[in-house]
Amino acid sequence: MTELAENLEPAREVIVRYNNVKKAFGNNIVLNDLNLDVYKGEKVALIGPSGSGKTTIIRMLMTLEQPSSGTIEIDGEHLWHKEVNGQLKDADEKHLRKVRGKIGMVFQQYNLFPHMSIMRNCTEAPIHVLGLSKDEAKERALQMLQKVGLSDKVDMYPSQLSGGQQQRVAIARSLVMQPKVMLFDEVTAALDPELVGEVLEVIKDIASEGETTMMLITHEMDFARDVADRVLFLDNGLIAEHGTPYDVIENPQSDRLKSFLGRFNSAH
Amino acid sequence: MFTNIDTFLPYILGGLTTTVQAFLFGAVLAYSIAIVAGLARTSRLAIVRGVATVFVELFRGTSLLVQMFFFAFAFPALMPFTMSTFIAGGLALGLNYGAYASEVVRGAVLAVPKGQKEAAISLNMSKFQTMRRVVLPQAFRLMLPGLGNNAIELLKGTSLVYFISLADMTFNANILRSSNTSLVSQVEIYTYLLLVYFVLALPLVFLTRWLEKRASKGVSTA
Fold first, then answer.
1. Which distant-in-sequence residues (6+ apart) come within 8 Å of A61 by Cβ?
2. Within a domain: residue B64?
3. In the structure, what pLDDT confidence band is assigned to residue A266 with cuts at 50, 70 and 90?
4. What are phi and psi of A219, to 5 degrees?
5. Does one domain contain both A78 and A195?
6. Is A115 in contact with B129 (Cβ distance < 8 A)?
7. For residue B111, what are the contacts with CB-CB under 8 A and spacing of at least 6?
8. Is residue A143 domain-shared with residue A60, that is, in the same domain?
9. Are residues A225 and A168 part of one domain?
10. Count of structural domains, chain A
11. Do residues A121 and A79 both lie within one domain?
């Protein structure tokens, strides 16, 4: 890169780095040699057919799945390894807990705690993991519930809310922990079509605030176009195409991507 | 018939304390064991799982009565210490019903959806916090019907301590029978005994129901 180009580009700080990451379940290779840098504040959309490896990418970052080989770094620290005298050793639970606090995740099935009120869903971890006082945690939770438009539901239980509302609570619950990187795993896939919009709006709102880095798996192409700085098309465990939303969604190069996108257009 | 209630019933109830004590001793032990062994059976460590499995299968797979005889008569001969027959009986009850109840605990823990654990991890809870705050409260609700059932079984199982000569209600009823040999008396004695066990089981039934109601808070019945 020339000096001029360096000066034009604002300094971009890598927050998540995948180095030669492979993941196999038995003989089934799900991810093949993934190298990926995600920058601070960046919104990255992952698209691709099911089984292409996109879910595995974010589940490994949430420490729900261990890579078969390779390393993942978050905010300058190894995630699945720790350095002992310059050598990489498998991370223990203590290390995982230290690093994983930088990451939050919203799931397809919401996974709210059914035995806790909406408020307690949002304060349980802040109190017991972050060590906040009850009042501090409640205040923070209320702020986030306001942000997702559900501050009037604090005393209700998850089963009393619609799917869209539950998913918005799940987003608030994750936000209260103030993660540096937020992961969204097909968060509208389980919702009735008329409830999808409210959840996407909330995510767009948060994305527009800028600071939080986001990795989003989605089948909503309009949403990906609106929110993402970069779109990755995953196919057979590889990043088959990547670029701006315009590059990938409007201007697909490979036949695989064209036919994948074609399925969404025909559905319109 | 039922003319001797004034003498028979008090005599049977003379064993009430022993029955209730055996039940309480057995229940505390059984539920402690159930939780430890049930959770151990879901452990990721093969050795922990293995030890728990051997224990559960050993105590489920052998007769409670023989276990009582073993603890009361064989154990003292093998060990350098003596043990009262009450402790022997309570131990057999607790270990045996604990082994059964541990399966209820295990099943309930496994029935909590995997996504709950993953959500707890995503909020950076420790393994202990995940168990205590997320998995067990939900598993508890699922365990209640099974554990309530076990409690009633355990209560009725206490009547076996009669065989190791503990003076419980069944023991007293059998003494009555030996001195009141008429058929009418037999009917009377054992009817009272059945009724007393039934009445003792009622609070357990209501306690279980009450707990189930409390624990279902917030959980949809659909």
1. A16, A72, A74, A79, A103, A181, A183, A215
2. yes
3. low
4. -110, 5
5. yes
6. no
7. B139, B142
8. no
9. no
10. 2
11. no
Shortest Cα distance, chain B CAs vs residue A8, angstroms = 37
Would you call A94 an interface residue with chain B, using a CB distance cutoff of 8 Å? no
> Which residue is listed with tokens 């929110």?
A227
Tell me, yes or no, if B218 comes closer than 8 A to chain A by beta carbon. yes
Residue with tokens 């990547």: A242
User: What SS3 class is residue A62?
Assistant: coil
Q: Rounded to a whole number, what is the distance in Å from the CA of B139 to chain A's nearest CA?
A: 11
Q: CB atoms < 10 A from the CB of A201, how many?
A: 14
The CATH number assigned to the domain holding A202 equals 3.40.50.300
Residues 6+ positions from A251 with CB-CB distance below 8 Å? none
What is the residue range of A229's domain?
A: 3-102+179-267
- Give whole-number Cα distances, B160 to A180, A254, B90, in Å: 62, 77, 11
Together in a domain, A154 and A173: yes
Structural domain contains residue B216: no
Backbone angles phi, psi at B218, to 5 degrees: 85, -15
Element spanning B60, H or E: helix B46-60
- Per the domain annotation, does B212 fall within a domain? no
Q: How far apart are CA A188 and CA A185, in angstroms?
A: 9
The model's pTM is 0.84
ipTM: 0.91
For residue B186, give the amino acid letter: Q
Which residue range(s) make up the domain with B128? 18-168
Q: Which among B122, B141, B215 is the nearest to A105, CB-wise? A: B122
pLDDT tens-digit series, residues A60-69: 999 999 999 9
Give yes or no: residues A37 and A63 share one domain. yes
B163: Cα separation from own chain's centroid:
18
